[in-house]
Amino acid sequence: MQLIFVGIGLVAGVLSGIFGIGGGIVIVPSLILVAGLAPLVATGTSLAALLLPVGVLGAYEYYRKGHLNIGAALWIALGLFFGVYVGARLAQHLSAAQLKRGFAIFLVIVAGRIWFS
C-alpha cells in the first residue's frame, strides 16, 4: 500500500509542478478511487500530506475526529517531494496551450471517474 501512496504523491507532485494543483484535484480523488479511502479520510490525509504550512489546522481537525491516515500522508509527502521537481522540470518544456489542454483533459478524466464510480 505504501507504493500506492508514494505513487499518488509522485503524480500529485508532477501535476502540481506542471499545473499548480495537488490536494483537492489529484490526491483526494486518487485516495478515494485508487487507495479506496473514505472521502473524509482522503481529505484529512491529503491535508496532512500538505501539512506545512497549508493544512495544519484542517489536518488537526480531521485527526481529532479520527479521519486521518498519518502513515499514508507521510508516504504521499515523500512522493510529492520528488514529484513536484519532475513536474516543474517537465512544465518548462511545454507551451501554454499544451499546459491548458493537458489540464483540461486531466480534469475531464477525473470528473468522469468520480461521476461513474
Describe the protein's architecture and organization.
With 117 residues, this protein is an all-alpha fold. It has one domain. 83% of the residues lie in helices and 0% in strands. The protein has helices spanning 2-19, 23-33, 39-49, 51-64, 70-91, 96-116. α2 packs across α3 (39-49). The longest helix has 22 residues, at 70-91. The chain is globular. The chain starts with a helix and ends with a helix. 39% of the residues are buried.
Total strands: the figure is: 0
Total domain modules: 1
Low-confidence stretches: none
Radius of gyration: 14 Å
In round numbers, the mean pLDDT is 88
Overall geometry comes to globular
Order of helices and strands: HHHHHH
| Class by SSE composition | mainly alpha
Brief rundown of the structure:
By secondary structure, the protein is mainly α.
Write the layout of secondary structure elements.
Elements: H1 2-19, H2 23-33, H3 39-49, H4 51-64, H5 70-91, H6 96-116
